[in-house]
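User: Hey, my collaborator sent me this sequence without any context and asked if I could get a structure. I don't really work with proteins. Can you help?
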Amino acid sequence: MDAGRTQQRFAEATKHPAATTPIRKETPGAVSAASGDASLSQARTLGQVRGGQPSGRGGPGQPALQSQGEAAQQNRGKILTDPKEIVNHQLTLSPQIRENFAKLTPDQQKTLVGLMQSQVAPGTKYNTAPQASLGGGMGAAMAGAAPCDPASKPGAKPSDKEMRERTEQMNAGAARNGLIGLLSSGKLTSTDRQGQTLLSNLDRLQTQKLAPGADRNALLRSTVRDLSMPGFGGGEGNIAASELQTKLATDKPADYARLVGDLASPEGKSKLGNTSLQRSPEALKGDGNPFQSVSARLISSSVSEAGARQALYDQEVAGNPQAQKSLAAMSPEDRKRFQSLYESSIPSGNAPKMPPMPKDFENPTQAERDAQQTHMDRLKQIDRDRTDRGNLSKLLESGKLSTTDSQGKSLLTNLNALKHQTFAKEGVHKLDGAQVYSEVLNQVARPGDINQGGRGTCTVTTMEHLQATREPAEYVRLLSGLTSAEGSVALRNGEKLSRDTGLVAPDDSGRTAASRVYQASMMEFANGPDQDYRNDKDGHFRKDGTPILDDRGKLSRGLPMENLAKVSSAAMEGDFQLKQGTLGNSGKPSFLDSLLLASPVTMPLYFMRSSKSDQITADISQALSQKQSVQVGMRWSRNVDDRDGYHALSLYKMDDKYVYLRNPWGHGEQGETNSNTGVVRQALPRDPKENPVFGGFGFSGPSAVDPSLPTGEAGTLRMKKEDFYANLSSYAVQRDGK
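Assistant: No problem. I've predicted the 3D structure and written it out in structure-token form, which is a compact way to encode the shape of the chain:
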């Protein structure tokens, strides 16, 4: 849509003289009122002035100085009091907002403008100066919510009337910002089961008949808040109903607003698929919980626990065509197992109430500490159950639950066996079965979360990630045996794999308990009968207990690539063949190669002269084309004392310019730009679909990688081919396997 039509539509929607003026275009070097850094804007403008060509005398008409003046004026801001001007300004805060507003029909634009203008409280003074954003979902809803009142005297105590007015202005501002956030995210045009948009359902709250005691403004504001910050409006009461409320707010915003309207009507009834909802007598009254919104309470108190459990299943499974297709392909026994696992991840009963605060906050009694810990444990369990349901749904939709292991058993069967087995115990320590099940379930659903933590187990972690990704049923079968009371399992090739002693107790590695057991057990197996890997020391010892030292006199850590090929061939499908890389068997280049590798300038010459690179490229390309695994050993650090001087990774893609790898560091991979300290590479940002936030707030923190890069899972990276071949020590490709 062109700018003229957008401007005309907005003018028609607002019916205000200010709306007929051209929408302000951002001047090069300037920053819009909702985004950017004022100092950066001014610095860029000054750079244009100082670095430009001479253009005669400077004056008010000089473009660069005019731009600088406009930027400075914008950063100072302007105080708006007219509701139409405030809404006009907020709807032009960013290109995304302007673009999505332009996509609305004229009637939808008029509806949105009307809703926003209804949320400009009397006495509002809106400052157009850029405001700091909190980031994430909450930032979108809260940034700029507080009104600006320059007439207030610093330090003056406001009267009760002033406090009420300011609270009303703040709540109204939060509602406007929430509507802007829903517009920016594209949710306003999402539709419910009856084909109505979220925008029309929100507008309905302003026009429909309401039950006695219902507050129209509170309904609209709380609904917008719930949709802007899913999970924040939940409260005490039935857990299943609260989970349903959060699920609907996150995934079905239009249906959420429809349910609120139905339940707030005089009839107080609604339907969600096959589930009936009936407004409870206390739904429109406050329950003393300041965090629970009236809209959240309307939904969560209007459905029984059984109804909520069925509705959750309908939302995540029955209403998902791909999930239904996967279920239909299962055996009747596996369908029952899935239903059982899913239902077991929906907690029963009511959410735990917050225990009273300690009387002496700095010196709580033991009883008070126990109460706080019990409360926190219960909340963690509820959150873990929510994550389990999400992972089960993801695995069902992907079809992975029906994949089989080397014994012909499905992933679903093995997950069910893992959940109900007796877990290992050593002395005072025992494995938490619910925790291990949740960890394994997450690691087959999202293998990117697998990492080596603070241990030198990059080799077997690379194998663990590959197996969880490519052979999830076999991966779960092995972990079920390793974490069981017996602690042993037969590998794919028939050899026995046993859990080493000392692995039940937690360590300081930062890994999951499941990965700790898997990685240390695989290290021990790969060592063979002559060496002993000790997880607590992260090093190798002789059978008599004496440490094995490397050529630096330090405890030997890690694992040779030939040992990785050995254990991979035993545990995974196919045979892993280890081959020499461009650095040679020793991992060290020749004298001439060392000269070429000494400088980034001559490094491409090394790549060009290496006769092995073409053969290696052919080997890897063939393996990738046949969907076979590729593991690589690389020189990783230039520091000879660094434990990561050599490193194992998996390679999953190659093109004309780059190779793409997965680092077992996982989230710890942030890229490298200095060739004097390590291999130059770029970390790929995580795919948002693979990194969901179940808690509802959406805080993910700043990203250390270039968002313009292709996405991947945690630990994925790319590097130029010349850098790859300049540091490749060896590689193992899977043969005769998938």
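In plain terms: Residues 1-11, 14-61, 133-152, 693-703 have pLDDT under 50 and may be disordered. You can pass these tokens on to your collaborator as they are.
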